[in-house]
């Protein structure tokens, strides 16, 4: 009987535990969870702030009872302190300071990532918050209940920053969004990022691109946020969401090899350099299927996949992680923005000879009511004709997320752009076109490639 | 300069013409169109009856002007009468009886399919209509305007029958739907067909499965529809939509080889057995990518693909039709039903050893408002683990159509069911799950296959 110990009770850790029990019902699985929120959906936090999810307990993908019902032992509110690969033990401490040593046959590290704390003076002031974990969430919630802030500055125009801008606007706060780059959502090309920015502005969010925040200071009852170039605004609360950094101190101390940005190095089976120790999720380097190299690209969907592979292999399986394509989607008010694969600049940097085009088509036949325009970016390699990446921005009822998934499936198989037209996709006038918009966009790329050849 | 003549102005013919002009702008293209409705969306007709499309002219994918602006000559209201492959001419006659002979270098036949006229006594009575073409549409429309029918019997529970049931219910008619099989939409497994039937009933459609209509007779002002087993109902109008048959008399008379159900035989380049003559769309046999054989499976999306291949090759290209997977979708009131690949019985008949499972999952995280349950059927081959088919029924805002397309892309590449979990699909709580529902359904199949292995 294998005793599998897992450090971390978020997506990767829970996925590993569930898969291990599924593949080998005789295995014993113990998951060490630093807080009391196992399997919480970090991606769901903004919807608690908007009160679309009134009770934060509902953010759990599964309850603790669901997990233990699968035959998994949960050690809640235990912090792992030390891994001893030679003795095959993990030491952990609970909230009361009680220490214990847990022996393991196999270990999965799923310690995740921490919010980056940028070098802004005043970042530790009361009313200034990082946002990553459930404890962060509860702290902000308590502050809002006590202080009833009327305005907030959000530093960082990535997914969480934009979703929180929507959520707090819905709660009635005046939101100021500060982004260092030229457009928000810089994971998209600027043309499509501009569409997202327009939606935010339309909904009353004050969007300030190209602002490098340097200082937060008390200003009477308020907090004054100052940027380079003289930017200055007084607000009642500040949220900081400028990315994450892998949490790998424990792994490093155990002699586990780290790579890019301090993330744990793993092989395609999710094994680290230490025998019997696997790692998965936001604390590891991730294989990129198109780039053919490791990247640091922490995403919940990827963490689930990697955790599942690690859990299967920890109990004797031979699963392989197929790699990421960086497929991502975000909903901002009524707009959805999604991408998969490489943008033009990324493709160029990777040694391709990319051609990228912009294209617009409606989500379904325009004669049927409720058609929405979708904006596409298609990137392909001129020499080989290979599809390299796609981006779509459009209405939340335009099936943007599942349309990007069609490109993701095409990319997975290394299809050419013209190959996308060969896919036998579904058609009915209220939901699509005889050539789906994803195929029309691919055909527009083909035509452009023919002209520029 | 190639003179390409195309017989037929619907999806296949127009696609062929447009592609020929795109690939070879020096080519001359003439399209012979039997009516005055080139490039009309037959699939859009029900939405004219519902008045969601108030003006039927909007059903054209392109106007005649759009088409001629691409450098294509349209011969409207001309019926092709004879093809002479030796002389390379087509003779056609206009409404005034004026004949003309048109020489061609290459010919594309896109004559489509006719509605099947079943052997029901009384089918030629006034008030009884087949529904396939724009002239049919206008005839029904005129009858409805003159007679103001309050009730209708629709014979045939396929796509058009169901869409017309919705449309005429929306127009205020009492609709009786008569289907010969045990459930409507027999293109789906009965379990999922039952969900569609329930939606129709909920919306006030009187659904009568297992009714074999034998007679329609005048009954005072009304029409009485009688079936075997004593079924009898009086209605004001009858629509008959029980399938189509390829229109290939012209081709047969020209010595072009026919196959299944009288459809034209073509090779993967869309060439017939007669040199220089191609065919595409609802008048031909279609290669099935999974069955590895020809079938008769007329669909608008397929006609576009085949027309494009025929048009490209007619002007010297070397395009190949990649084959159909039978991907289909239909919206019925608030429900969407879709399928791709093979059902269990079809897989069995094709020599696979299929396992099919039923599975339910919400379209997005259940904690976010507005989640809809999706019902899945997954069919895979026990021996190889290969995905063979998928069916989904769910709410119109559940991205059912584009979710079936993810399976269609997987099928195209011959993926295993478990391979679907490797796809890097997009995730955000309002639109999906870390494992998309399509992956959860695949994992449920895997678990079932493990248990039954």
Helicity of chain A, in percent? Answer: 25-40%
Oligomer: homodimer
Annotation, overall tally of beta strands of chain A: 25
Largest interface: A-B, 69 and 69 residues
Give the integer mean of the pLDDT values of chain A: 97
Return residue spans of chain A where pLDDT drops below 50 for at least 5 consecutive residues.
Answer: none
Rg calculated over all Cα atoms of chain A: 23 Å
Shape of chain A: globular
- Enumerate how many helices of chain A there are, as a single number: 11
How many angstroms separate the termini of chain A?
A: 62 Å
Task: Enumerate the strands of the largest sheet of chain A in spatial order, edge to edge or round the barrel.
Answer: 3-2-1-7-18
Structural class of chain A: alpha/beta
Notes on the protein architecture:
The structure is a homodimer of 453-residue chains. Helix content of chain A is 26%, strand content 28%. Chain A has 453 residues and is α/β, with parallel strands linked by helices. A 5-stranded parallel beta sheet of chain A has the order 3-2-1-7-18. In chain A, strands 9-16-10-11-12 form a 5-stranded parallel beta sheet. A 5-stranded antiparallel beta sheet of chain A has the order 21-22-25-24-23, sandwiched between helices. In chain A, a hairpin with a 2-residue loop joins strand 13 and strand 14. The termini of chain A are far apart. Chains A and B meet through helix 8, strand 21, strand 22 and helix 10 of A and helix 8, strand 21, strand 22 and helix 10 of B.
